[in-house]
Design a protein that fits this description.
With 1261 residues, the chain is mostly beta strands. Among the domains are: 321 residues, Methylamine Dehydrogenase, Chain H (7 Propeller); 117 residues, no CATH class. It is 8% helix and 46% strand. The protein contains eleven helices and 88 strands. The strands form 20 sheets. Strands 32, 55, 56, 57, 58, 59, 60, 61 and 62 form a nine-stranded mixed beta sheet that branches. The chain has a seven-stranded antiparallel beta sheet with strand order 10-11-12-13-14-15-16, with no helix packed on it. Helix 6 runs antiparallel to helix 10, helix 8 packs across helix 11 and helix 9 packs across helix 11. The two termini are 42 Å apart. 46% of the residues are buried.
């Protein structure tokens, strides 16, 4: 295969690429659908977002737990419905058939789901899918929709499912719709039993004139059971018709002649907000802003609709909230014969309950209360045994959603929240203070804060974090817990409960926690436990027979948890003391370092029960230790036990217990590669990934240093000759903090703490050197969304093999903030938001480095109810918020807080920034605020606030207004320039503004007119960069005390934000509306036209990036690129990395391999696969080709090196007739060439490339 060598010649046009990665997907939930997609025994609920779906399972106690997710659609989801495919008819069909009706004679397939999910994608295709538990994957079938329909028609905007799941209908927003008949349930069940799915039997497309507002199937009467009724509401020329298509289900769809009935709707029903099919008499209900109208017997022109009133709008707000969602609760079969009950939900969360009689009339209507959340998107009912109440699921585009319990004659009660931080109005990056350590790993991550609003005027500041959530389920407050050094948990409690042992330097406490944590928690005294509560515990554990082992400085205590066994203790001599110890419960082994007058010795003892007595027997002779031990870890193999001892000098000593004797194996010195004077003492050891393959043993040893450094080792040994065969290979050390690092194993994973940080670590040990991945653990409190522990003193993971406590296998016990917390650790990493509530709708957000505080602008609305008409005032307020605040912010009416400024009614805060001008040795600190007003003569103001910490209470910030400068036009953005100047975008001009003590005096002519407002500005002397609302990026030269045009983007887009990267290429990353992100250069700009060259790269994202912010490059990233974060209004967070040519070439090849692969990109069109052949680089440069989609590459990273090798060598996609696709040999050779160019010569290029890719894509929040 020939590749042009000079394709990217550095002489003429050097190339730069851009790697985008969705760090945090949008939290918006479009639909919540109860759907048993795994099996009939799981109470599954599907949460459908903008481009992904997630399956949650309802468990006892009104709680939804995450199960799995799917996010490889690569397109927006426009509509979703559930299709019943069980061979037993759904309850709606049984109701219509009558009491004597028998179910379909086929028995349901055991273990198969009774339902599948139907989606319509913006890429104009239908997707049918379910989840196969036997193959542990989603099984899907997709059917492209007609491509001759314009994209603007949005084919698939409406979908409907026939009540008996015999057909589905799909429509565009206007003019077109299609009907698909489905195969019989037994056929579909047979397909699903073989992990296949092809549900469509026939299809037919129709055309109507007008906009299709709604489309639903109606319920046929029992006597018309063989009929299929499809109803459409079509608007055309300001009138709306209801059109009903009726045909026989037994006919072939293509040969059927549907009976079409058309009825003109009265003006009051012309634009309904909901169309609800009723189960009685083929009726349907239209809901408008003020009434409900029931049309009976399809579209019988002889019958006028029955009308019923709806609730009146709130007088205070003068709003008319729309009734936007409905759901049908599940009732028993006999009740359904004569009733049809429906929940109605208004967009402000108000819910009503309708009781509909046998003839389709509304018999009763009850207002049930408020859900206290916006409901303009998702609303449904979970059919789950719940003590006589209904479980309501609700969510919206703004504000949180939730799971609510609705009992008869009661208000809804929220039992679980679904946090939503959209719409995002602004964002800010708070950079880590640990950037002076270049080898720092995750602690160098940036903190991302966004501010959001809601229709309830309850805005918030949300810290967006990524990692593993540990949700608090129980908090135990005891005196003295803040001094706790260690905690151990043992599965020997009462009735399958947990024994918790905590220890401080002076004493120990023993607690008995019941299994369900509902009963009373008891403290166990010394007499009952046989343990020593008056001494510090050095090590503890429990054996398989239920004996609790406690090691103190002077003795080993054995506490029996059952009456037939007596407790005992083994005391050391007066001149002996234990310095460090470890307990291995499975081997009943206690290992201790004992100090006496002859020095330090390593002792090992084994617990052996004898009748009702517990005794300890020595294992071999004590071994002399010529070093100071700090920690011990013991692991067992089939040949014996291995003892790992961490020393104060940074060495690891290994001993083996074989044939009841102890033998020294080897020692290993760590290389931490730090030049600074640090402690190399090993404070903790943990073993994970233990693998026994015959005589060959492998495991990963994690060492936590006192200086906050994690050092992993890959260890291999041969049990035939363990002493001589052991090999220890050190991986790269990572600094996680500056205090002692505590690490504990949890099966194949380990947990570790260092300072305020909490991590989970997993290690792949396929090669000699382990490849470790860190994930943050975030402790959350459902009752306090702002909570996060300030310090974690100690923790213990419940590793219980006992089946009675299997549910505790993911339970974390930790001492934090002086309390014992019992947390449930989630299985998968995800977004873990932390929310600080505000007393209004947040609009702008900034961070003050001087104050170490967030500065937020929010608006509050007040009403003058005495006026007629009622007057409404909206004012903007400023507040200073501690980023680590543990509680919501109070309103300005709180008299205990310092004074805060607020704007005039109708004045909006458009920008906030910190400004620190300097004059000689003096430094001034201002918070500068730009505002915009509509009705005043001076439509813009720049307000200078002088701020400082209060001397009497440093936790409080005081401020006062120092200067106010007024402008004729509204202020859009402000940027500091030089030492004394602010560049202000006001109206359609840029104005330099300097304080009185400024040494610079700008000329009056320095004002620069711009064609459209500059909504974002930044300065990099002598240039001023501007994102304008209509002309994209513009650059002004601010030299010689005046502003002149330097360069502008040759393409005119609606600019939003930008970040100037700089460097030799003078790079700038700019975003504009429509999802475009461009990488532009300021070089090669001519004086003639001042146009910037064509963009190096253009990324076309699914949503517009409204704010770009520079970030910190983590040491784990192998590339030297710049890191930039982008936030979108829908809550999505992107990360952008600039790529050099070699990096882009390799990633481009990997991306093309992924695009052609039907597993990684199952929904990529055939045309796109052919347009991106894996072995071919286009000679014609296009900026969009330089964009690399990190979301696609992340799917490859998850599958590992073996899958990459398969993609490189497979012949599945090669055809000799199309040689441009590349033969497997040519593609593999190309891969080796690109890998060598980027990483150099390596022994295993495939594995090393995957490690590099994994580190590049790693999420570090």
């Amino acid at each position: 295969m020939e590749i042009e060598d000079n394709l990217f010649s550095s002489d003429s046009h050097p190339r730069m690429g851009l790697l985008s990665r969705t760090l945090i997907p949008s939290p918006i939930i479009q639909w919540i659908l109860p759907a048993r997609l795994r099996s009939e025994h799981q109470n599954d609920v599907v949460f459908i977002g903008e481009r992904s779906l997630q399956i949650k399972e309802a468990v006892s106690g009104f709680h939804l737990e995450d199960v799995t997710s799917k996010s490889d659609f690569d397109s927006n989801i426009m509509a979703a419905k559930v299709i019943n495919v069980g061979t037993e008819l759904p309850w709606e069909a049984q109701m219509k058939l009558g009491a004597s009706a028998a179910p379909v004679n086929s028995e349901p397939q055991i273990g198969l789901p009774p339902q599948i999910l139907l989606l319509s994608l913006a890429s104009r295709e239908l997707v049918f899918l379910y989840y196969s538990m036997s193959s542990d994957q989603f099984i899907h079938h997709h059917r492209p929709l007609p491509s001759d329909v314009s994209t603007f028609e949005r084919f698939g905007r409406n979908i409907a499912v026939e009540p008996r799941s015999r057909a589905i209908a799909v429509s565009a927003s206007s003019d077109y719709f299609g009907v698909f008949t489905l195969k019989q349930p037994p056929v579909l069940q047979s397909q699903m039993a073989h992990h296949q799915l092809d549900p469509i039997s026939e299809e037919r497309f129709f055309r109507v004139d007008g906009d299709i507002i709604f489309m639903e199937f109606l319920y046929p009467r029992p006597e018309d059971d063989g009929k299929i009724l499809l109803l459409l509401l079509v608007a055309h020329d300001q009138i709306t018709h209801a059109i009903c298509y009726e045909w026989d289900a037994s006919e072939h769809l293509r040969q059927a002649s549907p009976i079409v009935t058309k009825r003109l709707l009265p003006p009051e029903d012309r634009l309904p907000t909901m169309l609800i099919p009723l189960t009685k008499t083929s009726s349907f209900m239209l809901v408008t802003t003020s009434t409900m109208a029931v049309y009976k017997n399809r579209l019988d022109p002889r019958r006028q609709p029955s009308r019923y009133p709806l609730g009146l709008p709130d007088r205070e707000s003068r709003k008319s909230p729309l009734w936007t969602r409905w759901a049908r609760p599940l009732r028993n079969w006999l009740y359904n014969q004569k009733h049809d009950d429906i929940y109605l939900c208004r967009e402000d969360g108000q819910i009503s309950y309708l009781g509909i009689g046998n003839e389709g009339e509304v018999e009763n209507q009850a207002h049930l209360g408020q859900l206290c959340c916006d409901v303009d998107a998702a609303f449904d009912i979970l059919h789950f045994g719940n003590e006589g109440g209904d479980l309501l699921l609700a969510a919206g585009n703004t504000g949180d959603g939730g799971l609510f319990v609705q009992k008869a004659r009661d208000h809804p009660r929220c039992v679980q929240k679904f946090m939503n931080w959209s719409p995002v109005t602004d964002s800010v990056i708070v950079k880590s203070s640990n950037q002076q350590f270049p080898l720092s790993a995750d602690i160098a991550s940036d903190r991302l804060f966004v501010c959001s609003t809601s229709s309830f005027a309850q805005g918030a500041i949300v810290e967006l974090r990524h990692g593993i959530e540990a949700q608090i389920g129980l908090v135990v407050s005891l005196e003295g817990l803040s001094g706790t050094r260690d905690i151990w948990t043992m599965s020997t409690g009462t009735n399958g409960g947990v024994i918790v042992l905590t220890s401080d330097p002076m004493s120990s406490v023993l607690l008995d926690l019941p299994a369900d944590f509902d009963e009373e928690i008891c403290a166990i005294d010394e007499a009952d436990s046989g343990l020593d509560c008056g001494s510090q515990t050095l090590a503890a554990g429990s054996t398989d027979i239920g004996v609790i082992v406690q090691v103190t400085e002077r003795a080993i205590h054995l506490g029996a948890t059952f009456a037939s066994m007596r407790s005992s203790r083994f005391e050391y001599g007066y001149d002996q003391s234990i310095t460090v110890a470890a307990v291995n419960g499975s081997a009943s082994l206690i290992v201790a370092a004992v100090r006496d007058q002859d020095g330090l010795h390593l002792h090992a003892k084994r617990l052996t029960p004898s009748g009702d007595q517990l005794s300890l027997t020595d294992v071999g002779e004590p071994l002399r230790m010529h070093f100071e031990p700090v920690c011990i870890s013991v692991l067992t193999f089939d040949f014996g036990s291995l003892i790992c001892v961490g020393a104060g000098n940074g060495k690891i000593f290994l001993y083996v217990i074989e044939n009841e004797s102890i033998t020294f194996m080897s020692e290993k010195t760590m290389d931490v590669a730090y030049n600074e004077d640090i402690s190399k003492a090993i404070d903790s050891l943990a073993v994970i990934n233990k693998v026994e393959n015959g005589p060959l043993k492998k495991f990963v040893l994690l060492c936590g240093l006192r200086s906050g450094i994690l050092v992993p080792f890959g260890v291999t040994l041969d049990s035939v000759n363990a002493v001589s065969s052991i090999v220890m290979t050190q991986a790269t050390p990572q600094r996680l903090g500056h205090t002692s690092l505590n690490v504990q194993s949890r099966g194949d994973l380990a947990l570790l703490t260092c300072g305020q940080g909490f991590w989970q670590i997993s290690c792949a040990h396929d090669s000699m050197m382990p490849d470790c991945t860190l994930q943050r653990i975030w402790i959350t409190d459902q009752n306090n969304p702002a909570y996060h522990p300030r310090s974690i003193h100690s923790f213990s993971v419940a590793n219980f093999a006992n089946s009675d406590v299997e549910g505790l296998s993911n339970t974390l016990f930790c001492i934090a903030d002086g309390q014992l917390m019992v947390c449930t650790i989630q299985r998968e990493e995800k977004t873990v938001p932390r929310r600080i509530g505000l007393p209004g709708s947040a609009t702008k957000l900034a961070y003050s480095q001087y104050l170490k505080s967030l500065v937020v602008a929010y608006s509050r609305t007040e009403f003058d109810t005495d006026a007629d008409p009622i007057k409404r005032f909206t004012r903007s307020h400023i507040e200073f918020v501690d980023p680590d605040s543990q509680q919501a912010i109070c309103g300005p009416e709180d008299k205990l807080r310092p004074w805060r400024p607020h704007g005039a009614a109708g004045e909006k805060i458009s920008c906030i920034l910190e400004w620190t001008p300097k004059k000689g040795d003096e430094e001034y600190h201002f918070i500068v605020i730009g505002t915009a007003r509509k009705n005043q003569q001076d439509r813009g103001r720049v307000i200078f606030l002088q701020t400082s910490r209060m001397s009497s209470d440093p936790s409080q910030i005081e401020c006062n207004v120092k200067y106010v400068h007024k402008f004729e036009g509204p202020v859009y953005s402000i940027a500091p320039y030089g030492n004394f100047t602010l560049m202000v975008s006001t109206g359609h001009e840029i104005v330099p503004l300097e304080p009185k003590f400024s040494q610079t005096r700008w000329l009056r002519a320095a004002r620069y007119p711009v064609p459209s407002p500059a909504v974002s500005m930044s300065s990099h002397e002598p240039y001023l960069y501007m994102s304008t609302s209509r002309e994209s990026l513009m650059i002004l030269n601010a030299s010689e005390e005046k502003l002149v045009l330097h360069a502008y983007d040759r393409q005119k887009h609606d600019g939003l934000s930008h970040v100037h990267i700089g460097g030799d290429m003078q790079l700038t990353l700019a975003s504009s509306r429509g999802g475009r992100v461009s990488l532009l250069t300021g070089r090669r700009v001519t004086e003639n036209d001042k146009m910037m060259p064509v963009a190096f790269c253009e990324a076309h994202l699914s949503t517009s990036v409204t704010k770009l912010s520079p970030g910190t490059r983590h040491s784990t990233m192998p590339t030297s690129s710049q890191v930039i974060y982008g936030t979108a209004m829908n809550g999505t967070v992107y990360r952008f990395l600039t790529l050099k040519e070699k990096e882009w070439r390799l990633l481009h090849l990997l991306q093309n391999l992924c695009i052609r692969d039907t597993v990684i990109c199952p929904f990529t069109s055939k045309r796109k696969r052919q347009r991106n052949p894996a072995g071919y680089e286009s000679l014609e440069f296009q900026p969009s080709q330089m964009h690399i989609n990190g979301d696609i590459l992340n799917r490859l990273s998850i599958r590992g090196p073996s899958y990459l090798m398969y993609m490189l060598v497979t012949e599945e996609f090669y055809s000799p007739s199309t040689p441009e696709t590349g033969s497997p040999q040519a593609i593999y050779e190309r891969f080796l060439e690109l890998s060598k160019d980027l990483l150099g010569e390596t022994s295993n290029p495939v594995e090393d490339v995957m490690k590099w890719l994994k580190r590049t894509l790693h999420v570090g929040f």
